[in-house]
Request: fold
Amino acid sequence: MPPPLPLLDYQRYGRQMILDGFGLSGQVKLKQSSVIVVGAGGLGCPALQYLAAAGVGTIGIVDDDIVELSNLQRQILHSESSLGIPKAESAASSIKRINSTVQVDVITSRLTPKNALEVLGKYDLILDCTDNAPTRYLLSDVAVYLRKPLISGAAQKFEGQMTVYNLGPDGPCYRCLFPKPPAQEVVGTCEETGILGAVTGIIGNLQALEAIKLITGLHDKKPSLLLYSALGTPPFRSIKLRSRKSNCPACAMEGFGSDTIAETDYVQACGGPRPDWVGRGLVNGIAGHRATVKDLKKFLDSGQDINLLDVRPSTEFGICQLQSSRSVPLHELAAEPDQYLPEDAKTPTFIVCRLGNDSQIAAEAMRGMRPGLCIQDVVGGLRAWSKEIDDSFPIY
Reply:
């Protein structure tokens, strides 16, 4: 009788096949399994890498974004040669180089309530490697309807978390833990808050590990939330999760079905689209309240005394700053705006930030202290300065 795996697979996967509880049967299960990864970014890249290396038979990749230079710090399947290429295609090429025997399905279209069931339905497991609330709720609802586990990861700054939703008959779904989405105004992205690349690697690897455990039968099926802090001691904490909520609108409702998913506007349910901070920072505003970068340049070149305040966090000020600007983080200025008014009432005040949003808040706070002073924030912030005045000024 021929062996259940090709002979080369015994060499390729031998180091994991000899593990107690894994064995030949575990490898065969991996080969026969299918996993779809939604998001080929910071979390999806390490997850995809280890799923392919472990020998998962079929891997789906969903991502409608393209590779940008800022991605390369953490999205390890992409490279400089991938810039401008769809992330799903770039990731697929990379994992095929790792393991050519894996079947890779590439989906470069956006996942929506209309197509999610069709796209995700043919896979055994779903990995949520996204970074936005509407997609998280959509994936959770689809996993509940399909009765499939959802392995969800998240990372920001120095911290991350990972859990498996819809695990077993009583495992909670995402809605059980987070029945109401946070306001979009307060949900920061990696671009806004920052992210240490290795943190996404840790969480993404853990997601792949959970998938392998579930496929091979090594998982204890006990729902828990794993929290990680790169600067914490110890760095990992595990929280046992309760069972499904009896009033959950998804996993506890009798009539929850495909029509409910298809007809739900997940973006609006989560408070609407994410704020366009770049666009908001470029709005002209009330005449006399906002100055352009060209206006600021004229004042700087004239040699006239100005009160130039930079309200970005001190860490960002340390990255780059305009000559003669003074670092006053927004939270400090907002607490005591009168402390940063110029001594001479005739001295104009200009306020800058990264994109031109925080500077508006700071300017309003200062105007309330002493009406009549010339206090203007700069439209578009330092990004506009780099694009319109000095292309050698860093954009980050």
